[in-house]
Design goal:
With 222 residues, the chain is mainly beta. It has one domain: Lipid/polyisoprenoid-binding, YceI-like (Lipocalin, Beta Barrel). Helix content is 5%, strand content 50%. The chain has one helix at residues 103-114, and strands spanning 2-4, 26-27, 29-31, 44-48, 54-61, 64-80, 83-98, 132-143, 146-155, 158-171, 174-179, 182-185, 210-221.
């Protein structure tokens, strides 16, 4: 197995806007969308295995926390001589799942996050109007001794650049990209429900703006 540490000047990333945990993971740098990386003519496409690739989310509020997953709908990495040159992923927002509740409580939380409850469509992700999110790589770089992945994350038709630390492993015809836990500010993508920053009169009935994400992408050579 050949280990490749990737650094990417990341311009965004996808997904879930709930509640976020501030104690774990570093904050992802968020900024204006950047120019998307382009692959060379010699690059080979690796198709994302959507069955085992996923995003794990962790959110928090004063009264507790929740965690779950979001699945990728599709994705491609362009690889040349063991180096990822470009890539794009589509996230299936209808796949938002909570893993710490059961029964009706689980169903209610998932429906609220997806926006499938009448009158609460816009609280979080409004998946009927915005069924997918996306992430496009913008570069690879080294930062403070860590490999950084950079790209543009689009949620609810709003795009921001983000950057997070990740490790890339290659084995035969497979590549695995695994991020460290990192946080994004959901309000940057208009996921504002329960935000103390947006609504100042919530007292202790707020949901943290920051949501923690951990990404695992497994891709196979076409």
């Amino acid at each position: 197995m050949k280990r490749i540490v990737l650094n990417i000047t990341f311009a965004t990333l996808l997904l879930t806007g709930l509640v976020a945990c501030k104690e774990k993971g570093g904050d992802a740098t968020t900024g204006e969308a950047q120019e998307v990386a382009e692959a060379t003519a010699t690059a080979t496409d690796y198709q994302v295995n959507t069955e085992i690739s996923q995003i794990v989310w962790l959110g928090q509020k004063p009264t507790g926390k929740h965690h779950g997953t979001v699945q990728l709908a599709s994705g491609t990495l362009a690889v040349s001589e063991g180096t990822i040159e470009a890539g794009k992923f589509t996230i299936d927002m209808n796949s938002i799942t909570d893993l710490d509740l059961e029964g009706e409580m689980k169903e209610n939380l998932e429906a609220h996050l997806k926006g499938t409850v009448a009158g609460k469509e816009g609280d979080f992700f409004d998946v009927t109007k915005y069924p997918v999110a996306s992430f496009e790589l913008t570069g690879i770089s080294k930062k403070e001794g860590k490999s950084m992945v950079a790209g543009n994350l689009t949620i609810k038709e709003k795009t921001h650049a983000i950057e997070f630390p990740a490790t890339i492993l290659t084995e035969d015809t497979m590549i695995t990209l695994s991020s460290e836990p990192f946080q994004i500010d959901r309000t940057k993508w208009d996921v504002n429900y329960g935000s103390k920053t947006i609504f100042g009169d919530l007292g202790d009935k707020f949901i943290n703006d920051m949501i923690e994400l951990t990404i695992k992408v497994v891709a196979n050579k076409s």
